[in-house]
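WARN no homologs supplied; continuing
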Amino acid sequence: MSRAADRLKLLIHHLDRSQAAIRAAPTSAQTLTLSSQPHRLRYTLETDLLSPEQRLFYEENGFILIKNLVSEEDIDKFRKEFERICRQRVKIPGLVVMKDVAIVKSEFVQDQRAVSKLQDFQEDPELFRYCNLPQILKHVECFTGPNIMAMHTMLINKPPDAGKKTSRHPMHQDLHYFPFRPADQIVCSWTAMEKVNRQNGCLVVLPGTHKGTLKEHDYPEWEGGVNKMYHGVRGYDSQHQRVHLEMEKGDTVFFHPLLIHGSGMNQTQGFRKAISCHYASAECYYIDVKGTTQENIEEEVKDLASRKYAIDEISFKDTWAFRGRLVQGERVSL
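OK structure emitted
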């Protein structure tokens, strides 16, 4: 047994015997208290990378923030590629360019001011390099195991709010969008491309909500309108403790797909950029979402894909299968 495993065993034994709580500070966002309930490690795997304290923190809270994980040099290259795409100097197959609803209604500019998000950049060699960064994959393996698929890619360019509060992202669970399981073998890596704080709309998470179930989602009824695909969770406890993840350039947060999270308005004059990828174990499997709370997003995604690719009939599974890319190990079932 490794030294880290010995230490973890000792920590869990201590927590089970005494009713004292331990405090861990694996993130710069906020120090949270770990409960003294018996711990059965469900959400993390033994890889000798995460410390016992970090593993227990993720088990309890559903996220972990790693400081300075991605280099400034890499982030600057990703930013330059994003700008090339916005200026239409390069055309990437399958890339989805999303625009903020309020900005699109007021103006159209062929640069980053009109673009709020890039999705599905798996065919862009430079941006997809993020998904293959060794330091990212080493952490991802702690949650998925050694066979890893990159399933969903995004570069978020949260614009200054145009006065309609449309730069907000409603509270949601990422699993709402995914027709594959098990949820515990899926994880998101989300890297700040510049300083991220409450003023420019940092992520906000509800610690521990990853232990719950997938809830119903739909478009929130916001006066200023809601961006496409920005579904919000229904029926969650709005009084639940919130943690605002203020991050520096290169900091990366890993979080569970059932963790309820969102982001606030960008109240600055600059753009808030982040790059992210959702990973899943290659041993995950597809499910049929008919008759579940995911039916609404299934129909929306299928309709969008049919119009984009001029295909009469496409399944929800197929819209994900063609985007997935093996980044480590063996492609087993996804």
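The two ends are 32 Å apart (CA to CA).
OK
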